[in-house]
Amino acid sequence: MKQGLRQFIFFATIGVIGTAGHYATLIILVEGFSTGPVLASTFGFVVGAFINYILNYRFTFKSNKPHREALSKFLLVAAMGAGINTGLMYLLIHQLMLHYFIAQLIATTIVLLWNFLISKYWTFRAE
Known about the structure:
By secondary structure, the chain is mainly α. The chain contains 4 helices and no strands. It starts with a helix and ends with a helix.
């Protein structure tokens, strides 16, 4: 349990870097290029996912799986996470009328939990 908590904290800390890439992309596209926030968030999610894969493969889970296997699993998990993120963004912005940044904070929290659990127990898990 202690190792799992430590690993989650490390995962979340590394996630801050990926989230910074996600949010920077989101804000630049919305504010600088007038892109809709749902689409901009989707592009940002891809940027953040790439950053997170590299750092989590190497540091958080210290995976020895071949990239072909780990990356294919990661991309499936990331696609599901992107779907969760996009769906939540749409719901929170268009149905609940939240500001896009508040909506993104909520979506990020939910996707963080999803990604950690699936990454730990499936994507990077040693056989």
